Structures are given as C-alpha cells and as structure tokens.
UniProtKB/TrEMBL annotation:
InterPro entries, alphabetized: AB_hydrolase_fold (IPR029058), SidJ (IPR013744)
PANTHER family associated with the record: DOLICHOL-PHOSPHATE MANNOSYLTRANSFERASE, UPF0613 PROTEIN PB24D3.06C
Protein name, UniProt field: Esterase
Upper classification of the organism: Eukaryota, Fungi, Dikarya, Ascomycota, Pezizomycotina
Length: 235
C-alpha cells in the first residue's frame, strides 16, 4: 500500500507542501526530472521529514512537463511556471527564503531559471529572485542518448532517423513512437520535434541546444553563458 503524507495541495499549477506549518518561513521548491511528478522521487519525503525540526518546508512542484508532459514542453515553459510558484510561495511566506532544487533533468530547469534572459523574450514579467539553488545529479541527456546509440546499431539507426525527421518537420510535430522507444524513451510519451532536438542537441558541442547544459564536451563560451552567469547574493 502506498504511504500517505500529511500536507496541503496548493494550486495553480500544483505544489504539494509537506507538513505545512505557519511557523516555517523558508521554502525548498523541488522539481523532478523527466517523467517525474508528485512524490515520484523517494528522497523528497525523507528530506521533508529531516526538515521537520527546522524553519524550512518542502514543496513538490508539479509542472506541465511533469509525468508524460516533458515530451512536448520546454525549459522556457518550465521556468515560467516555476516563477509563478515562487511568487505564490512568496505571498504565503513573505519574510522567508526560497531555494529551488532540481533533480536529474530538473537541474536543467534550475540552471535555465538562473541564466536565461529575464524576462524571457515575449514576456513582460521578470522572474522573481531566488535565495538559493541546488542542482542534484545533473545529467546530459545528449550524452546518454549518444552512449546508447554508440552501443547498439538498432539504436543508432533509430537516432539518425529521428534527427532527420525532426529537422524536416514542424517543431511541434510528434515523432514516431516506435523510434523514440528504441532510443530508450517511454513508448506512451509523445515527443515533439522541437523537444527532441533540444534534448538530443545533434549540433553540439559547436551549437548546443537549450537543454544541453551539462555535457562534458561543452565549449568554454557555452559554460560562460550558463554556469558562468551564476553569482552570490541572489539571482
């Protein structure tokens, strides 16, 4: 039987606050990786329990890209929704600190929140400042895909077909599920051409796509534009 948790389900979008207490003024906002959603990362509830005797509370943030949504969403959409959550929590706890934590591919959301233009192109509202950020187990989706492709001829063939298909179709067109399943993604998840090219980033390292933030072969200029923009004192 699944374990139950005492808490409050906040909207909108959705953020689950563990063990709410008006005396707890500081907040850790947790964002999972690809396919993650509410309570899918086991250590989050353990982290909330460890915080019980502190001034900190934990929010598990649910985005449009959670669960199966990651295949058709973007980092821009994610950080826009995270900014809404930060503003919401700031309204609940105006005197408290807010730290954003990303797990696995969720780390891309954290770094994108910190380094991308503020406000994003086409938006009027700037993202609110954070008091801290944590990138836990950041990974390179591109290097993972290439590792699979270089280890298996069938995966290599599917990967090359996907790259050609994605480049030829409209950005929001969906890729063939039989091919995306071969490269290791769930066979029940629609993936747009735009998101595939962002995650696979076939023109890297010379021209890294939006999601290619943690690959080991990124050029110095890319690192300056991303990690190099981080500074102390809030973002």
């Amino acid at each position: 039987m699944s374990q139950s948790h005492a808490g409050v389900l906040h909207e909108y979008l959705t953020a689950f606050e563990f063990n709410p207490n008006p005396q707890k003024q500081h907040s850790l906002l947790f964002v999972g990786g690809l396919t993650d959603g509410l309570l899918t990362v086991p250590y989050v509830s353990a982290l909330a329990k460890a915080f019980e005797s502190t001034e900190w509370t934990v929010f598990n943030v649910l985005l449009s890209s959670s669960y199966l949504g990651w295949g058709v969403e973007s980092l821009d959409k994610d950080v826009t929704e995270i900014a809404q959550c930060v503003n919401f929590v700031r309204g609940l706890k105006p005197q408290g600190k807010i730290v954003l934590m990303g797990h696995s591919t969720g780390s891309q959301d954290v770094l994108h929140y910190l380094h991308s233009p503020n406000p994003l192109p086409g938006q009027e509202s700037a993202r609110p400042v954070l008091d801290g950020a944590i990138m836990q187990a950041p990974v390179s989706d591109r290097e993972h895909i290439l590792h699979l492709a270089n280890s298996n001829q069938e995966v290599r063939g599917a990967y090359e077909q996907l790259v050609n298909f994605a480049r030829a179709q409209a950005p929001q067109s969906l890729l063939p599920l039989n091919l995306t399943a071969v490269v290791g993604w769930p066979d029940n998840t629609g993936i747009s051409c735009r998101r595939f090219l962002s995650l696979a980033s076939p023109d890297s390292p010379e021209k890294p796509a939006e999601d290619d933030l943690f690959s080991s072969d990124l050029k110095d200029q890319r690192l300056k534009e991303t990690l190099g923009r981080l500074r102390r004192g809030g973002w």
